[in-house]
Design a protein that fits this description.
globular; 21 helices; six-stranded mixed β-sheet; five-stranded mixed β-sheet
């Protein structure tokens, strides 16, 4: 059997990284556009792709690079501007395009960015298709680009926002309005900063907007679904009926009730599942969630006669399972909610509208309608390890099996590796909070210790030996070496001399000097700080001063003691 190509750039949600650093560079975006354009050129018709983005500054770098790549592959490019991820997925399918692209890093800070691809059906690409694109990016594509007469064109879709607003409003029952509802809406200074407030306003709600002033740098900064504190405070301040928080690309949502208490994705899933089951609109006899969803949700759905299928973490895996099992509701605890009757991916605005529909039809407060089950105590701990993953070790397997037996029937244990860091995520949930804590701590204690620090890797960033060695390696040469050390000591040690001696200005340096058994290290720090002070006073390195002193005392007799005094001074 042929070995499948490995994915190196694509992760669980497209390509993601720090902007203008590998892999998230303009060069990579250009090659991605060329490779994806070639792969999705099928047939003799003029192929088209739509590109949307969020409000990050780096979007201005990646958008033209992708556009150039697709045009060079012979594709026409439609530019949608800042729009939510589900809007691009919807437009890809409704406009019968060949490909959809979203430039966004979702809930990450502005320094990061990412690229997600959607197929003609509006769904995220499979792992196999992403691997094919990566394989093409590694090849020389210069001979496969379009000839001059077949290059693509670029145009802007002026009514893209209006199309998405109407599609979101269409998800509500016919004739239902939101008149009389006061809603706090936090758009995280992201892609939905225009369309989400407009949709709620057109439906009759009184909207109190937050996070609708993007400047390229403030996306997700103390705002949105990952930082809902401002939302909760605004709900209480304005006496709102409910609060809605979206993330940077508006594919996830978190709610706050009228008391300012958070309603997570599991509660939203339970509420919508019950409403759809009662109306007879829930297909497949169940819903899809990830392994992180609370056990309380599973028990609540079981009482309703609704099954729960669990997948790996990631909304793309939820969507794949929904298509396989022909179900129309799925999501994650983090707030991704997929309603396949209206969207092909997580849509924060559409999910929020379904909750608002329940509030209007039931006449209940958000705190009454949205608390559909009592979540079981859940505890998560991240354990760092060194070397290979310890999950294959016999004693780790035995500990996991023993923990699962202790919780059998009353809870569950989930231990999985992180996809981005050398971490093992230990999660347990059950009815007994004390037992959960005991199990998590017991499993974490059996894991291998974290990586040991090297001798020079002090807690303080102004460590003499660490910083000096780096500069010595970079500079090279004895004269440059002494000049670099004098410059480094002057810049770093002089302002922080008191802090190394135990002052309050440098918390990390003080932490590196305190504690039992640090007396010798403390003495070494003080000696080096004295050397720094001496170097500042005399203007050059102490070792060079000592050599000069020896030259000046040449010819002095052994009885005059000058050479001893000189040596004592330099020490």
């Amino acid at each position: 059997m042929d070995k499948q190509p490995q994915r190196r750039l694509f992760g669980t949600d497209g390509i993601r990284g720090t902007a203008n650093k590998a892999p998230m560079t303009a060069e990579m975006a250009l090659r991605l556009g060329q490779a994806a354009g070639l792969l999705f050129t099928r047939g003799n018709h003029r192929h088209r792709v739509i590109i949307g983005k969020d409000t990050r500054l780096s979007g201005y770098m990646l958008e033209p690079a992708l556009t150039a790549g697709f045009i060079s592959a012979g594709m026409n490019v439609t530019l949608a501007g800042p729009l939510p991820t589900p809007a691009i997925a919807m437009l890809t399918r409704s406009l019968r395009l060949d490909l959809g692209v979203v430039i966004s890093a979702s809930h990450n800070p502005f320094e990061d960015n990412g690229i997600k691809l959607f197929g003609p059906d509006g769904a995220k690409l499979s792992d196999e298709t992403e691997a094919e694109i990566e394989a093409l990016m590694a090849e020389d594509l210069s001979e496969r680009m379009a000839p001059p007469e077949k290059l693509g064109r670029a145009a802007r879709l002026v009514d893209a926002a209006g199309r998405y607003i109407e599609a979101a409003k269409f998800s509500l029952p016919r004739g239902l309005r939101l008149d009389g509802l006061r809603i706090v809406l936090d758009c995280a200074h992201g892609a939905a900063y225009k369309v989400a407030p407009a949709a709620l306003f057109e439906l009759g709600a009184e909207v109190i907007p937050l996070g609708v002033s993007p400047d390229g740098f403030n996306i997700n900064r103390e705002a949105g679904s990952t930082a809902p504190r401002a939302l909760c405070e605004a709900v209480l301040e304005h006496h709102a009926d409910i609060g809605i928080a979206l993330d940077g690309d508006a594919d996830r949502v978190i709610l706050a009730d009228e008391r300012g208490e958070i309603i997570d994705g599991d509660q939203i899933l339970g509420l919508i599942a019950r409403d759809m089951a009662q109306a007879g609109n829930l297909r497949g006899g169940g819903i899809v969630a990830t392994v992180m969803s609370n056990l309380g949700l599973e028990r609540f759905l079981a009482d309703l006669g609704v099954s729960l299928t669990r997948t790996k973490v990631g909304d793309r895996y939820v969507a794949e399972a929904m298509r396989t099992e022909q179900k129309n509701l799925g999501g994650e605890q983090s707030g991704h909610v997929i309603l396949s009757d209206f969207a092909t991916t997580g849509d924060g605005l559409v999910a929020a509208l379904q909750v608002l529909s329940v509030l209007v039809r039931s006449g209940q407060r958000a705190s009454e309608a949205c608390r559909v089950f009592a979540p079981l105590p859940q505890l998560l701990r991240n354990v760092r390890y060194r070397g290979a993953s310890p999950l294959a070790l016999p004693h780790i397997k035995a500990a996991i099996e023993a923990a699962a037996k202790r919780l059998q029937g009353t809870g569950r244990v989930l231990i999985r590796p992180s996809g981005t860091e050398p971490l093992i995520r230990v999660m347990a949930e059950g009815e007994d909070q004390g037992l959960i804590e005991e199990i998590v701590e017991g499993c974490a204690a059996r894991s291998p210790p974290p990586p040991r620090r090297r001798r020079n890797d002090r807690a303080c960033p102004y460590s003499c030996r660490l910083g000096f060695r780096r500069r010595r390696r970079d500079r090279g040469g004895s004269e440059n070496h002494h000049r670099a050390r004098r410059l480094w000591l002057h810049r770093h040690h002089r302002p922080h001399r008191a802090e190394h001696a135990g002052g309050e200005g440098c918390a990390s340096g003080a932490a590196g000097l305190r504690g039992a058994g640090d007396a010798l290290r403390d003495r070494g720090y003080r000696r080096r700080c004295d050397q720094a002070r001496h170097a500042d006073q005399c203007g050059h390195h102490p070792r060079r001063r000592r050599d000069a002193a020896r030259q000046r005392t040449d010819g002095a007799g052994p009885g005059d003691g000058r050479h001893l005094r000189r040596r004592a001074v330099t020490r």
